[in-house]
Amino acid sequence: PSITGGQGPNQTRIMETFTPFAKKACTFLDASPDPYHAVKTNADKLEAAGFVGLSKREPFLGKLAPGGKYYYTVNKTALVAFSIGTNYSKGNGFKIIGGHTDSPNLKVKPISNRGKSAGKCVQLGVECYGGGLWHTWFDRDLGISGRVLVRNNNANDGACAVQQRFIKINKPVARVSTLCIHLQSAEERSAFKVNKEEHLSPIIATLEDGVAQQLVGGDNEVNAEDPWASSQEPRLMHLIATELGIDVKDIADFDLNLFDTQPATLGGMNDEFLYSARLDNLATCFVSIEALIEHSTSKLDGDTDVNVVVLFDHEEVGSQSAQGAGSPVIGEALRRIATALNGGAVDPDMYATTLRKSFVFSVDQAHAIHPNYASKHEKNHSPKMNGGVVMKINSNQRYTTNGVTGFIVREIARKAKITPLQEFVVRNDCPCGSTIGPIIASRTGVRTVDAGMPQLSMHSCREVMGIVDLTNGFDLFTAFFEHFRSIDDDLEG
Predict the structure, then answer these.
(1) Cβ–Cβ < 8 Å for 49, 77
(2) Are the C-beta atoms of 471 and 2 separated by less than 8 Å?
(3) Is the peptide bond between 281 and the residue preceding it cis, with omega within 30 degrees of 0?
(4) pLDDT digits (tens, 9 = 90+) for 32-53
(5) What predicted TM-score, i.e. pTM, was given to this entire model?
(6) Do the Cβ atoms of 480 and 95 come closer than 8 Å?
(7) Do residues 273 and 464 touch, judged by C-beta distance below 8 A?
(8) Residue 143 φ/ψ, nearest 5 degrees
């Protein structure tokens, strides 16, 4: 059961029906400070549910079968998971949910050592990733996470000489501090303006005489003869080495970002809100994988299609990468799965038939109406938190929803007797964001709808959404996997 937009959340009902799922989401969010951890957390969950890991470097032929459940990763930051209905036959379609694993953040620069700073402070060199609300990153307690390449100098035959290790330093080791009001001019006080290059470098330590020298040279120190290592902040290198239990000299490279260490939590008078970083778009990652597991566990018998969740990287910077929505990831996945299930035969006509029977749910968080800025929404298209999943429409094709794809989704909700969808259209005098939907639709030709769960503070260091909408999203995604085929078959071609 779900609460509709016209009802006020009841505390007892929230506690009994929606809170357990929301707390599960909090656990996922806390475990996923970056795309690497988001993919690994979901991959571990899929394996526990019986999904079999595939290597994208090996053919899928002979490894896929109706009733099977599978997944693989791309660059460890994108995820493809799918299950095959027991009644699948050649030429049947794909039911696809697409989302993304990345969020705006501060990334450590390739040369992390900024040299001497004023006040003998040690700072990290960082780069802004995506379109963040950067003023919200000030005065936050920041940890460091990501991927580290580690040389394995004791590797046995067959072992990788360079290993990929994930790191999550879940303690406040960095902070971007604001300038006190007493040192600001009247103009500076009137509007908080951020120079992203000069004002966002976090402080990680104070520079005590002799400390830096003690960290360079010796048995477990930064290798001064390695150009890459010698350009890194020594304290950062030692922190990584300590966390991973390795020698500093074995660190070959890293891809690190900062994250807010404050845990995700429930809030509001009735605990009806979820406060967290990275709700855009980890809320989608969480709910979509939960829905795929649920359908693949209880409703795969009799299913005639392939159920797919694809979580891309780099949506926040345009999706144009080897693991973004603009890459071959989704097209390659569909072709390889269809070919393997067709006995290895490459049949362009059969594949075209498959695409015509397929559908993509492009899911990214949506903009709920803000009570302090209500005029920013078009009055007839003002989604509410805890009011249901939002369908996004834009006639200029910033979103892909059209009359047919919108009808299909509304019909799915009607047939499943779940919360009706809300609808969002941006004001004519406001710019409109976009999603992975138009990119996927234009590259695959598959019918697509854009939707998302409503939230406030999108791209802030700390965001908020209604916990009822997590369940609304789960209900809709499981209904999509269950009911799409029958609705599509009844729709005139």
Answers:
(1) no
(2) yes
(3) yes
(4) 999 999 999 999 999 999 999 9
(5) 0.94
(6) yes
(7) yes
(8) -100, 180
